[in-house]
Amino acid sequence: MAIFSVYVVNKAGGLIYQLDHYAPRADTEKTFSYPLDLVLRPHDERVVVAFGQRDGIRVGHAVLAINGAEVNGRFTADGKDVLEFLGNPANYPVSIRFGRHRLSSNEKLMLASMFHSLFAIGSQLSPEVGSSGIEMLETDTFKLHCFQTLTGIKFVVLADPRQAGIDSLLRKIYEIYSDFALKNPFYSLEMPIRCELFDQNLKLALEVAEKAGPFGPGS
């Protein structure tokens, strides 16, 4: 069981806190000779596999590293264009690591805003007046759980579909937010949460939830 990440979104749809707790690794590294038997294409400022899925390398995976050096978007560690580097026979044999790209800070901000809009749309589409909006989205690899407070703050948890006790965890996170963010004299409402005690207690709550499931009385 695992809890992947936590998002806190303010009532205006802005991301005010985000924590990556556990990221499943699905990277694949292989050594290739020339010519490269995969088709690579630039996409969203990174180089991804467009054709040639095999041996754990999937279409959509991004080039993460070349010869052990991390790749920054479409460029190698020393500033060379990835596609130009891999198109040069003199650079082979070459070791390439592929995997799912890591979301940037801007991408996380955008996704939080998009979910805020979807939450509002869900509320409006409901045939019942006063719908709470989206509480859970389910895929084959994770579930997204959302709890919105009366003041409009949304707490979002992404977890393994088999993870139990998420409803209790969401309310525990709300308690931690109330105790260590709202009661912090240096914290301003609706603004990003930068509080060490909030971080520490949130991480502890996630660890407890993963090991023990639902929070019991007095937890």
Helices and strands in order:
Blueprint (H helix, E strand, L loop, with lengths): L2 E7 L5 E6 L7 E5 L6 E5 L2 E6 L10 E5 L2 E2 L11 H5 L7 E6 L5 H21 L10 E3 L4 E6 L5 E6 L6 H17 L13 H17 L7
Antiparallel strand pairs: 1-2, 1-11, 3-8, 4-5, 6-7, 6-8, 9-10, 10-11
Question: Mind explaining what this structure looks like?
Answer:
This protein has 219 residues and is an alpha+beta fold. It has two domains: 1-21 and 102-210, 2-Layer Sandwich (Beta-Lactamase); 25-97, Pdz3 Domain. 27% of the residues lie in helices and 26% in strands. It is built from four helices and eleven strands, in the order βββββββαβαβββαα. Helix 3 packs antiparallel against helix 4 (196-212). The longest helix has 21 residues, at 105-125. It is elongated, with a radius of gyration of 21 Å. It comes from Alca torda.
What is the overall silhouette? elongated
State the domain count: 2
> Mind telling me the CATH class of the largest domain?
Alpha Beta
Number of helices: 4
Instruction: Let me know the average pLDDT.
Output: 89
Please outline the major beta sheet.
5 strands, antiparallel
**Number of E-type strands:** 11
Protein name: Trafficking protein particle complex subunit
Family: Belongs to the TRAPP small subunits family. TRAPPC4 subfamily.
GO biological process, one term: endoplasmic reticulum to Golgi vesicle-mediated transport
Keywords: Cell membrane, Endoplasmic reticulum, ER-Golgi transport, Golgi apparatus, Membrane, Postsynaptic cell membrane, Synapse, Transport
